[in-house]
Design goal:
- The protein has 160 residues and is of the alpha+beta class.
- It has 3 helices and 7 strands, in the order H-E-E-H-E-H-E-E-E-E.
- It has one domain: Mannose-Binding Protein A, subunit A (Mannose-Binding Protein A, Chain A, Roll), CATH 3.10.100.10.
- A 4-stranded antiparallel β-sheet has the order 1-2-7-3, with helices on both faces.
- The longest helix is centred in the first third of the chain and has 30 residues.
- The chain starts with a helix and ends with a strand.
- This is C-type lectin domain-containing protein.
- GO terms for molecular function: carbohydrate binding.
- It comes from Pyxicephalus adspersus.
């Protein structure tokens, strides 16, 4: 009987923790915005790339990483509304491990790319610029930047 009770208590703890996670995610979705099975929350305080990433992880998410043109457009529109039309944010894409091989926060190769290729031919920073940003002022185009620069950012959270 003791083992059954212990098992029930463990299951209840698990259920309560799951409900807390869902409630936290709902709060984030209410503060931010929701689309494409994700919630997005803009953070206006500029931070370097690693600090921004750590901040998102501490909240249970990651830096936003657009997987499609529609998602990139959505994030761009959200940035323009929440942070301003000329804002530039960190996105969860970098080539720190292997120059020129851009990956997401899990280290997986990215397939969708939206580099600014007009006047600046991005990514153009070589080993000096290993982190990607999205510019609301340039229609959501991406730029490579020094990871030490400080920019606002958008965290994304998967809706389960």
């Amino acid at each position: 009987m003791y083992e059954e009770l212990k098992k029930e208590v463990q299951e209840l703890k698990h259920d309560v923790n799951h409900l807390k996670e869902q409630q936290s995610l709902q709060t984030i979705c209410l503060k931010g915005t929701k689309a494409i099975n994700k919630c997005f929350l803009s953070i206006s305080e500029p931070k370097n790339y690693h600090q921004a990433s750590d901040d998102c992880i501490a909240q249970g998410g990651t830096l936003s990483t657009p997987d499609t043109r529609d998602e990139n457009d959505f994030i761009n529109d959200y940035v323009r509304k929440s942070l301003g039309v000329s804002s530039e944010i960190w996105i969860g894409i970098n080539d720190m491990a292997n120059e020129g091989s851009w990956v997401d926060m899990t280290g997986s190769q990215i397939f969708f790319k939206h580099w600014a290729t007009g006047a600046t031919f991005e990514p153009n920073g070589g080993k000096q610029e290993n982190c990607a940003s999205l510019s609301a002022a340039v229609d959501g185009k991406w730029f490579d930047k020094s990871c030490k620069e400080e920019l606002p950012f958008v965290c994304q959270f998967a809706i389960v």
